[in-house]
């Protein structure tokens, strides 16, 4: 008895144990170092649960008011950094509950009636993710705003568009940037969609079977701003697809962050020289005095792999688990927390980068003199004005490109006589379509790059996203 008392003196589950927990196991078993992040949601959940217990006359009103003041005191202790978190109390739930009992005594022992850590932890986690979704959705909105502003300033700035990273066709910088606004817009809607599915309250599922106490799950769900209580107690405590979905959303966001970062990195390299990034987001080299490296963008690109790793982590964590709860699920938290924190910091820094970018219009324009970006316009001219079927027009234009390459010149530097050696029907007007300005102004199909449409797309994007 004295041994039990000594070794499990603080444990709420210590009753049936006689041997102490192995020291290594104690650390192995503990999650408090990372799940203390859930303290606010844990307290919020406990307050709702206790209020319901009192309302249902499962505990006394007086118990509830003592529990409430105890929990609020604990919240302050944690926030003032004076709460003594203990490894041997495993997790945030037991750390708080034990402290509550220490503070208020008997009433504190009643809080865990009709509840289990299994439904408690998953409720906390859902609330935590719900809040994160709001933060990240807002950061995405901020980023979209910066991108839209930049697109607006540069809606008619010409640059080469690329496919295969080979010069393809002239586009406007504004149009290119708006592509990312669309991606981040879908990311936002995916997060909101994830939140919709997630927003069912597991509390009341208890360990796995539900409970024999006359609880009111609707009351708790409503109090905690969930849409409904979850429908199946076993599913409630075993499923983590909401978390997997959240990290999936974060993975897609990371993919988009990584792609735009990659482009900014390429564009700021000396070869491209399309943009410069602000010094606040670049660093020097310890050996090469001339260097200014795009570290922030590189980190935003690099950190995406952490998030993908976290997604694989949590997918494989859940896949082999029998129903209902297994302790494996304690491992869900770190990938969730890390992914969220990573994406937050990437979005904040990317937004910062975007706001410091300077665009080099001249360089972008001069890049259009290489790679024959308006060859397709010439083919289109042959179709529209000279009635060639597109496949023939493509072939003729290909031969003209070959001719230009042999002469080491651009298409518009070929004389009309030279063009006629390829196709006698070609007339002088064909040369006019070779100008990048003309090329973009003709891309008037819905969603196209004509500056007029880009301007309209910008005002639409403002309405849709901001
Ligand atoms: N710390 C645990 C977790 O994160 C809480 C649930 C523990 N449940 C249990 N039956 N041991 O999953």
Give short descriptive properties of this protein:
two-stranded antiparallel sheet, mainly alpha, disordered N terminus, 466 residues, two-stranded parallel ribbon, binds arginine, elongated, 61% helix, single chain, 19 helices
Give an overview in words.
61% of the residues lie in helices and 5% in strands. Strand 1 and strand 2 form a beta hairpin. The N terminus is likely disordered. 41% of the residues are buried. The longest helix has 37 residues. The protein contains 19 helices and 6 strands. By secondary structure, it is mainly α. The strands form 3 sheets. It has a two-stranded antiparallel sheet. Helix 7 packs antiparallel against helix 8. The protein binds arginine. The site of arginine has 10 residues, from helix 7.
What's the β-strand tally?
Answer: 6
Q: Indicate the proportion of strand residues.
A: under 5%
Major beta sheet summary = 2 strands, antiparallel
Instruction: Name the overall outline.
Output: elongated
Regions with pLDDT < 50 over 5+ consecutive residues?
1-5
Structural class: mainly alpha
Overall mean pLDDT stands at: 96
